[in-house]
Known about the structure:
By secondary structure, this protein is of the alpha/beta class.
Amino acid sequence: ACLDRIEAIDPRVRAFLHVDREGALATAAAVDARRAAGEDLHRLAGVPIALKDNLVTRGIPTTCASRILGDWRPPYDATVTRKIKEAGLPIVGKTNMDEFAMGSSTEHSAFGATRNPWDLERIPGGSGGGSAAAVAAYMVPLALGSDTGGSIRQPGSVTGTVGAKPTYGAVSRYGLIAMASSLDQIGPVTRTVADAAALTELVGGFDPADSTSLDEPVPALTEAVRSVAGQGSIKGLKVGVVKELSGDGYEKDVIDAFKDTVERLRGAGAEVVEVSCPNFEYSLAAYYLIMPAEVSSNLARFDGMRYGIRVEPTEGPVTAERVMAATRGAGFGDEVKRRIILGTHVLSAGYYDAYYGSAQKVRTLIQRDFDAVFERVDVLVSPTAPTTAFKFGEKTDDPMAMYLNDVATIPANLAGIPAMNVPNSVSGEGLPIGVQVLAPAHGDLKMYEAASLIEA
Length: 456
Ligand code: GLN
């Protein structure tokens, strides 16, 4: 049914870069046979899933929506891919994204933008617009994304899907093509909070192949969601509203929907207090220095020798350096080049302390802001994105306007804490609006409890 639906509507939405019809049907048939033989299968066995195209899948094209990877077919599986295969979920395909996950609209995909199923003239968010659109349009019930500065949550907000960034290290990054390693985290894209919980339980957990993987048990998220949904309230839950994340620059409909949610939480027995995180003012600036610094170093591996395309200079000697330059010149899009140039600049001798060094200090201050407020509250809530889905082209000529869309999602990545989007309303124009729930590091369980309260 998912494959038929993809065939019917994806020519208009364009959420997928690659559909693996045969592979998905083969997995489904194998699961049926095992079930018929009475085997005890994983509870998600047979449930179709889509993967963002920066997650490596053995033998299946993995492009990061970039020309530079050509038709690269990875020789190995990401840890999340392996777990999904072992549990018997058919992987129906790979979803579109901004090139190398850089963007908030999927307009930076080398293969054309994905459209928002709610309004085909509007962006589905980014960078994981493909996974969000695929789930929002009922093409698949589950998808995986990656979140470096909001790429799961902001698409969730503008497409009405649930999306979570777990605590940094909770899901292995082995086989996630790195954007900014200290910020990247894989997470679920689903229709409900319970589905996000179930998928996280499947893909999470310690992995010796990722040196930043947390060596601790996966929290019992499904159980927590079930018990909160059953009660419809959490007595004594302390919720903080971050003053700095709900004022200027947010659309009126977004703020109104957010206020409604806060009232709903109060009604469900939560104690709501306003808190202040004064250093959040600098989070965009810090992110857009630290992220490109890591990008410039991670993307050095695309050199025309190891993966994907190789372009030789049209004239002059064919040296390693000149092949590298020609390949990167032809293979990377403008936004990727912009960030590599920014990154190499901020890391260069003489500028390092002024830019990268200062940004790292700001990062610590943001972490301390979170530490201080989490002494007073269990979770924080904020709007996920300042606006509803904007129209194609609206922000493409102005990188700063595009970057501003990440204002509410970035602090969680800088601090490594869990954060998720829960759809909570629809604007006057009929576009989805989401609310963000944030919890302290390792506090994913509390985040899911609050999220299921908001969803209910
Ligand atoms: N919009 C952010 C950026 O462009 C988000 C990136 C991400 O989370 N992958 O950097």
